[in-house]
Amino acid sequence: MCSSDLEDPDFLRPEPVALDRFTMDVIRRWRPTADRQWEVGRLDPVTIGADRERLGLAVDALLENAVRHTGSGDTIQLSVLVNGPELPVRMIVADTGQGIAPSELEHIFDRFRTGSPPGGAAGGTGSKGTGLGLALVRAVAHAHGGDVRVRSTPGVGSEFEMVLPAPAVSTGAMYPALPLSWSAGPPEPAADRTLKDDPWPSRNR
Question: Has this prediction a pTM greater than 0.70?
Fold first, then answer.
């Protein structure tokens, strides 16, 4: 399947996807694959109409990229944010890795590009590539009527934000960070789980 197919909304098979639980499932699946500090940031309980399989491919590509640009002990965090009715949903993958060289950012979503860390050597162990890299993320976001953004600072880390259209359904109250063991029902109120020195405050607003 090529990126142009992924970007075509006619190829989508939308269904209700509860993004908070979707994110927990993704974290549980990825946690054993790399020696990182896997964290769940703010998870707003929100349900959107999306192609679950293709959304999963996009998030996997973001996590694959995060693993590639981090090392043992670095943090990778997933968050789901929606700040009000009829506002877009933001799925955020943030890491405390090496960051991406500024010269790479302009072309980061080109096909087969994943970005090079400062100095040119990839950090971390990485995992088998998807073949489309971050272009897949952009294609899936566009197919859903959304977009993807990136912020990165060498030596601090990177934050990729997939913006999806306003949900048709949003349920429950908004809760702070969830422990990885959470499986049913909201946790007791607790302080947000953040990356070291919180280099990306956008995850919490």
Answer: yes
Residue type, 95: D
In this predicted model, what pLDDT tens digit does every residue of 148-170 receive, in sequence order?
999 999 999 999 999 999 875 54
CB 146 within 8 A of CB 88: yes
Q: Which two tokens stand for residue 73?
A: 């002990």
The angle at the Cα of 23, spanning 19 to 27, to the nearest 5 degrees, equals 175
Q: Per the structure block, which two tokens stand in for 36?
A: 């990182």
- Six token digits for residue 162: 């997939």
How far, CA to CA in Å, does 140 sit from each of 54, 80, 84, 89, 125? 7, 17, 23, 14, 26
123-162 residues labelled b (16+ CB within 10 A) or e (exposed): bbeeeeebebbbbbbbbbbbbbebebebbbeeebbbbbbb
With 0-12 / 13-18 / 19 or more C-beta atoms within 10 angstroms meaning exposed / middle / buried, residue 204 is middle
**pLDDT tens for each residue of 56-82:** 999 999 999 999 999 999 999 999 999
Which secondary-structure segment (H or E) carries 134?
A: helix 134-143
For residue 100, report the phi and psi dihedrals to the nearest 5 degrees: -120, 135
